[in-house]
Amino acid sequence: MDRNRFLARARGRGVNPLVYWVSRALFEPFFLLYFRMSRVGREHIPREGGVIIASNHRSFLDPFVIGTLLHRPVYFVAKRELFTHRLPAWWLSSLGAFPVDRGNGDRDAMDTARRILERGDCVVIFPEGTRTRPGGLGSPKRGVGRLALETGAPIIPVAVHGTEAIRRGWRIRPHKVSLRCGQPLRFEQVDSPSPQLARAVMERVWPNVELQWEWLGGTAPLRRAAIVGAGAWGTGLAVALTRAGLEVELGCRTPEQARVIACSRVNEHYLPDVTLPNAVSVTNVERLALSRADIICFAVPAAALPDAVAAHAASIPERAAVLVLSKGLVAPLGTLPSAYVSERVRARAVACIGGPGHAADALDNGASLVVGSVDGVFATQLQRVLRRAGFDASSTSDVVGVELAGTAKNAAALAAAVAGVSGPNAAGAAAGKVFAEIDAFARTQGASPQTFAGLAGAGDLVATVVAQGSRNRRAGELLGLGMPAENIGEQLGQSSEALEGVALLARTLAREGVPSPTLDRLVALVDGRIDPAAFTAHVTAPAGQRSEAAHAIAAGRAAAADGARRNGAAGHVGDAEDVAFAGVAGELAQPEPGASPE
What we know:
- The protein contains 25 helices and 19 strands.
- The chain is of the alpha/beta class.
- Helix 11 (337-342) links the parallel strand 16 and strand 17 (349-354).
- The chain is elongated.
């Protein structure tokens, strides 16, 4: 490709009038009829003189639909790869396109645009630098600002909506396309503008493009966040979102907690080494302005999620999105947290977050997080926000996998800490077996094995097991040392989601017919029916000895139930005990190694 030849043509003789007007005569009626194209604000574009059109970029079609806004030729930059074949290159050049080397600060292309503006023609530039989809608009680069300062040409903010949906493979679909032009923005001409000055110009221009975009129905950027719950992750998320440029309200459980944190700017109980930025507004949850928020975050334990949703669901607007940070299952049916919220709010989208992300360490050293949502637009928005906050973020539509992986992580870490009193081999066996049992359940619910094997599962489990400050690990250690489960919360000073949720998790697996002998014994330990030594012995015992133990436990349970019936008690031992022996029955049904099934 002779790139200089195409640049020289744009600087010199410009478009081929015959090719340009014939192509336009064919395309414009097609766009109006097939795409039902609407154009608002065309009167803002000057009829003569140099002018810069700054637009968002969603599709290859954008320069062509923008060209129909004016009754004169427009020039636009196109990636240099489009000029590698002779015929398409000639046609594009005849229509006013000139090549740009994206990502390399192509000064030649910018000089060409400047020359075009100086002779009084129109240039279309996409400040995002590349096509951005799905979701809201991307972040602009400063090139347009520099060009406006060097030439004194006015900038017309333009939004294009709908072009991202017209193409499916090679098929062009009849999807509605809309364009809207804002009023021209003018800046004083400067001979050698600094990068800071060019950036300042873009900071004025881009909000005007966003305004046109939202007027057309485009997804609004995430500007304001409201967080329900001021625990470790709620507080940490408030700091992270502030770093990403959002306005944040942090909702505390009580007015007294809100007053203390607002005055000290430190959450001493949950995140003592982190200072809240002044941009974080602290209040109690009842006073959160949810109607103004673009994203509402539920940062409460799974056990507290029903009350939190019941209190705030009616105040969540339809245009907002919801992020659920709870890990575990929601009683009484063992519902996944995001599914529970989705059924009860009117929000446009719901997402969850997984992966190794302990709050204090994430703020100090970063974290690799996984956004789970079936709404690709919100997942992309949230992914960008987390990246601006300094995190490595990816996204997946496997919401079931992300949430069950987090649930498995909690239970496995608790089991590992209990068994870890007896050494690393027992800890590894306990964690691996519990994690595998929940993984088997997750697959029956449609989760992807890759999710459990990745950041949301194995990565999060490793982080929790090695984290000194993990409350689930500490709860397991106290349980392994013989402390009754009901006393552990008071000792920790906060709740352990794993300790509170294993019984519901085991009941859910039993209801779905998934054997979970190790998880069931963990429940028995939490309920006080076996001691830590018996749990650890089960984890590491050969299969035959586990079966003998299972027979003995089942016989003991049958005797207890028979005694209860003779004494006129309820006709069954409690639900939690039923679950604890569901895995035992499964083990009794398994053949001994080497034996033939009957």
